[in-house]
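Entry type: protein chain
Record version: 2
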Amino acid sequence: MSSTIREADVGSSKVTPLPARAAANTAVPHDHRIARNPGMKLDLGFMESVRSVNRSALERRVASLTKRRSIKADNQAAWLLRAVACMDLTTLNSNDTEERVRRLCAKAINPFRRDIVEGLGISGETIRPAAVCVYHPFVATAVDAVRGTGIHVAAVSTAFPHGLAPLSTRLQEIEASVRDGADEIDVVIPRGLVFGAKWRELYNEIVSMRAACGDAHLKVILGTGDLATLRNVMLASMVAMMAGADFIKTSTGKESVNATLPVGLAMVRAIRAYFEETGYLIGFKPAGGISTAKASLDWLVLMKEELGRPWLEPDLFRFGASSLLTDIERQLEHHLTGHYSANHRHAMA
């Protein structure tokens, strides 16, 4: 049986044409400084050329990165501050309330206790999470709470976390969040389209989502823990980028397996291949299960080693995290005092 990429029969489905790609230095609206990815035509030949993934090699590479790099003392504190600047501070719980979202936003505006800020000598710096991430009903609350701070508001959308609703309903949800002020939209793909190799249908759906976002940036959640193989992860990443994703994201945080370094490595190599093909820089967001300062350092090292310095900026890299900030703050206090404090001294929402 041929191992080449094919598309399952999708009837009369046609690819929605995208505009011709603009120059890679095209001006970008809002505060985002990276030229937006306009997408490209669905190219199964290009996907075929990058589909091969060697899991053992990826695992060896990840092991070498995390063991070879040791970040200590002042350097570690600086890298942890960078992790905070690349964070989407998130609350996606069934018992979320407007008050909890306001507290989350207050923490995003002032992420560290005053004594830690003064001890680190960063009183004159503005170091905050890049965004807060909430469900649609709380977008307006978050927008009001962070107004004027430069913090973005991201909304999870499209029948999060499973994506199993009619496309028209999912697009209406995106449009509603944009109207309420969200400037970043995290969408989920229906995993069944990947399992059925319905690449054209998946591509068309993401193109429609990108159009519904308007100027809001689009992060496409693959749900990698559900996709079964790294080959599926690589191909879904490529389809999302071809369809115009600004970021590709590992997980919803609701899967049994969320962000892992080998899966992340496969996705960042897809980003590198897409950049080499098109000249456009795509962001990456690991999410789910990243709760320790040590884990955040591993991810930052991965980005630096595989994609380079630009991917240590929030325009191109984000953590999706809820409890990570607490552990980073504890580690920074330990850096200053030599002692670990209890979690309750670093209150979240």
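Comment: Residues 9-31 have pLDDT under 50 and may be disordered.
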